[in-house]
């Protein structure tokens, strides 16, 4: 496999794996190490996206798979506009979602890789976890709601 024998990278347990995602424990990888992994995937003919978050979690997903694309699918299916949507996240695996267009909430317990995220559509909540999400939704008042 393309990931074999990369120092410091170990597969996560079977329950963390899926048909469309390979997950690894990878503590404090550098950009050089991430570039090596990208190179190995490319060299093996595996077009994938590397998602590295929390300084410890490495996921490899198909190039076409992302949280942002999943959110856009729902926006389209429910006939919403991005102005009617609030997304939230707490780690690097949420970065593409948080920068994809909808109003974004970075919760108070966010990992360091999200702390620099700024912009007119980004709200930095003080509260953590679900309370941070609710705080962000309240901040984005006037948006449509959807009962699920």
Outline the structure in words.
The chain is of the alpha/beta class and 148 residues long. It has 2 domains: 54 residues, Hypothetical Protein Ta0175, Chain: A, domain 2 (Alpha-Beta Complex); 73 residues, Rossmann fold (3-Layer(aba) Sandwich). It has 4 helices and 7 strands, in the order ββαββαβαββα. The strands form 2 sheets. Strands 1-2-4-3 form a 4-stranded antiparallel β-sheet, with helices on one face. It has a 3-stranded parallel β-sheet with strand order 5-6-7. A hairpin with a 3-residue loop joins strand 3 and strand 4. The longest helix has 13 residues. The chain is globular. The N and C termini lie far apart (41 Å).
What is the strand content? 15-25%
| CATH class bucket of the largest domain | Alpha Beta
Indicate the mean pLDDT: 91
Radius of gyration: 17 Å
Count of the separate structural domains: 2
Q: How does the helix and strand content classify structurally?
A: alpha/beta
SSE topology string: EEHEEHEHEEH
The tally of helices reads 4
The CATH homologous superfamily name of the largest domain equals: HAD superfamily/HAD-like
CATH architecture of the largest domain: 3-Layer(aba) Sandwich
- Spatial sequence of strands, sheet with the most strands: 1-2-4-3
Largest sheet: 4 strands, antiparallel
Outline the low-pLDDT stretches. none
CATH fold name of the largest domain? Rossmann fold
Helix content: 25-40%
* Amino-to-carboxy terminus distance: 41 Å
Structure summary, number of beta strands: 7
Shape: globular
């Amino acid at each position: 496999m393309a990931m074999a024998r990369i120092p410091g990278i170990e597969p996560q347990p079977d329950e963390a794996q899926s048909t469309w995602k390979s997950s690894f424990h990878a503590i404090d990888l550098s950009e050089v190490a991430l570039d090596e992994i990208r190179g190995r995937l490319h060299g093996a003919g595996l077009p994938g996206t590397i998602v590295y978050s929390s300084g410890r979690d490495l996921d490899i997903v198909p190039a076409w798979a992302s949280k942002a694309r999943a959110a856009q699918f729902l926006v389209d299916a429910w006939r919403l506009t991005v102005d009617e949507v609030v997304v939230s996240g707490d780690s690097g695996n949420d970065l593409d979602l948080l920068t994809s267009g909808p109003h974004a909430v970075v919760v108070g317990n966010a990992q360091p890789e999200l702390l620099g995220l700024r912009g007119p559509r980004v709200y930095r909540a003080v509260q953590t976890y679900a309370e941070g999400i609710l705080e962000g939704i309240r901040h984005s008042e006037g948006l449509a709601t959807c009962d699920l």
